[in-house]
Design brief:
The structure is a single chain. 74% of the residues lie in helices and 0% in strands. Helix 1 (2-13) packs antiparallel against helix 2. The protein has one domain (2-53). The protein is mainly alpha-helical and 58 residues long. The protein has three helices and no strands. It is flat and about 30 Å long.
Length: 58
């Protein structure tokens, strides 16, 4: 899932501490909620992630 990949990226690639990853979780959830409400996209589903890559967010 996208959430798991995001946290793997933070911990492995950016070497963020677990505390920092948890802090980012609230931001990620806020983004997911906004996308769900405004664009009707479920960020944490495979279909939603694919739809997001095809939308013009400008």
């Amino acid at each position: 899932m996208l959430r798991d990949r995001f946290f793997s990226y933070l911990s492995i690639e950016k070497q963020c501490s677990p505390h920092t990853c948890r802090a980012y979780e609230a931001d990620l959830q806020g983004l997911a909620d906004w996308l769900s409400q405004e664009l009707e996209i479920d960020l944490f589903s495979t279909e939603g992630a694919q739809a997001l890559s095809h939308k013009d967010l400008r």
